[in-house]
Write a structure and sequence with these properties.
There is one protein chain. It is built from six helices and 25 strands. It is an alpha+beta fold and 368 residues long. An eight-stranded antiparallel β-sheet has the order 6-2-3-4-17-16-15-10. Helix 3 crosses helix 4 and helix 5 runs antiparallel to helix 6.
Length: 368
Amino acid sequence: MELVVRKNDLLRELQLFQGIVERKNTIPILANVLMEAKGDEVRLLATDLEVALQSRCAASVSKAGSLTVPAKKLYEIVKALPDTDIRIEEDKAGVKVAADRFESRMQTLPREDFPSLPQSADVAMAVLPRAGLREMVAKTQFAITGEDTRYFLNGALLVLRPDAMSLVATDGHRLALVTAPREGAKGEEEVKAILPKKTLGELSRLLAEADGDVQYRRGENHLFFEVGGRVLISRMIDGQFPAYERVIPKGNDKRLEFDRDRLTNAVKRVALLSNERSRAVRLRLDSGAVDVSSNSPEFGEAHEALPVEYSGPAFEICFNAQYILDFLSAVNTDVVSLDLKDEVSQALMKPVGAEGYDYTYVIMPMRI
């Protein structure tokens, strides 16, 4: 294999692979990226057996071929090179990477050891709007649990309907649900799939880099997302996602509306003196104001009053401060609403005036 490629073109693609390749793995080949040079391009492929990414890069190929290269080291070398053409050439001792007056040689691993990946050619395709999907991922992925014991919660549920698509994630203490419109085929059936947390992270990077809609395909055990000439392949989580519709409260009759930045800053300040383990902040509702407070035996106490339009009965409710801040950092409207029922029932948070999507955030109160 022998080719010449522009530094910035190759660097842009290699950067997308860094979150996928496994640097500490019992299978050494998974730390490598597969490069296949042919015609006027070089194709790149990496996988950790759960998530895989295929991309391509324009190149001047003088000798076709394929090889595997350590993905992290290749990225570091390319990043450090001047903005010029890079020469990549296979030889008996490995692969040479050179540019300007710089020359290096890296070890390769056999192409035959690289795992084969499923293909999507014979799978039906659906088109998903990129902007809507990007909003959905950004506003739900933080709510995915990190507990391996509940493996079916280690991902987000994607639901496709003919006229809408939804993404929902929960860790048992809070739930994030985003629904955005889409144009589907008439008669298209509702389909559901659980996407792993790592897949959502890589999909988020891909959606930020590319333009155009997403071509989505679902195989027997894998999902395929194609956008901007790149294809993200992911295993599906096999499990039964909880009936999330039942968690969304219907009878919360006490509505508060906050300036998002003001609420964010108040919770951040007050949480500085909260218990480090529980991160609990207390909201005391009274006529015309909400008092946000915290206290801990180790540090002391803090509180901040926020003016609101409220004339209902006075009561207190307690939440994990980080759960509130996660929601506030994900929304981009100036005003957010908080719907409450009582001290022990789940609360409902929403952005006020959001366009192009519907965002529902359910948060369980804490008992302290």
